[in-house]
Amino acid sequence: MQLESMYQEIILDHYRRPLHAGLREPFDAEVHHVNPTCGDEVTLRVSLKDSGGEPAVADVSYEALGCSISQASVSMMTDLIIGKPVTEAMDISAEFLALMQSRGEGEPDEDVLGDAVAFEGVSKYPARIKCALLGWMAWKDATARALANGNGEQA
Amino acid sequence: MSLDVARVRKDFPILDRTVRGGQPLVYLDSANTSQKPRQVIDTLDEFYERHNANIHRATHELGEEATEAYEGARIKVARFIGTADETEVVFTKNVSEAINLVAYSIGNATAGSAASPLRLREGDEIVITEMEHHSNIVPWQLLCERTGARLRWFSVTDDGRLDLSQADELINSRTRLVSIAHQSNVLGTINPVTEIAGKAHAVGALVLVDAAQSAPHGLVDVASLGADLVGFTSHKMCGPTGVGVLWGRRELLEQLPPFLGGGEMIEMVWMDHSTYAPPPHKFEAGTMPIAQAVGLGAAVDYLTALGPERIQEHEQDLVRHALAVLEDIDGLRILGPTEAVDRGGAISFTMPGMHPHDVSQVLDDRGIAVRAGHHCAWPLHRALGVQSSTRASFYLYNTPDEVAALADGIRHAQKFFRVA
Description:
heterodimer; A: Sufe protein. Chain: A; 3-stranded antiparallel sheet; B: 420 residues; alpha/beta; 7-stranded mixed sheet; 14 helices; 16% strand
């Protein structure tokens, strides 16, 4: 029985009570991503700000339809990256991606990933990795678009 | 005599294995792909060990044996679907390719310089239904884009049947082709194909039937179905992956231009043009899935020996039982007909507060294999107002005990996610 290793209590908590949910103004870019295999969707907005000469994440807001894994993942992501410089948020995103690709062999750094270390168990289930990554991919896409438009630069 | 399921199960080696830490496998995903009996597996082995050669072109004994086995499989398939003329049976890769073959062939007839009764014109209409698998939607969208024809569709009623009140408006003098599922892969609904085909033929339209979900249960009799073209696939009917079938009326297959060009589909080739082999070989370019077709022949033998009526009777009993057991679960909503009338062995459902992916994960943890998602029928799910569903599908080897395991698993999921 490995169910508990996938559905850790912290994941179910985020699923039942997602953080930073809902779409908010203002935003610099909005994307809509789907997981074509199961139909899960997320609409995600990114707002950037200038923070001491480098772009930082002012806000990430979202509306998501999907399973507990995808919902909990996007909830934890927003909590981890809102307020952080974009470069640091991208590093966190890379760390999370590496964890999800680790096939259960990863050694996640709790200092970097916080609650998201709970996703280690999910990485053993290839079919669920896309669920966990849906929100993160949407955020990277939205942020790239916002940066390309010059958002987050000093006025 | 009814189907001896215990004996049937012994034919399927995979049903003996355990999954997820030593639990017996409860395989309820046969609408996705069926398991394979020993008889089919042995046929594949024997073909590769004893008879392997290319077909129709090898001038040696192995080539003769391989050709005989391949063409023999065509005859078996023809008999299984009720036609005496095996040249009406075209081997394809799967149903998707069978449907694409027809769509591209009609596109080729439209683009070609030769006059063809199959040519589509702007304003012509192709009719499908909202309950189709993506493989019976997307090829027609692409054909409409290429030709200027218009795609129309039957909608689905709340209880998961086609809304036939639209039939006379939808099928009219502009209709050129009607393409519908015999049995829905999500709802299990068996559609009144013969009735719809009658209306289509009355206005001179062709009828294609996607029989992917009905052929495995021996429900396809092309003589009585009323269709002009029927597609189905080996891997859902105890056969290997990699081979499917397009059946078509002989005159129609002669009219349809080739789809894929290449070796073995030709009569003569010059540098600037070619002439083509008669059907079915006109549509079988390149080296075909030979062993797989032979394996399909063995699958057809297997199903024929058990008896399609007995298989259907067993599945009907199981579906009736499963519908009653599942309806008893708090909050569970069955998509599609809740009575086992004109209904096959796929039962899709939703649960409040639980996403299908999560339900299926809990079931998988108990060794129960189902499918979760939109099952390649996204428009149908949208029409039913759900994002996705969990699907349990039953076949000849499933038992009432497995239905009970499914129900227990769903109740366990409710407890696990604290929705009950």
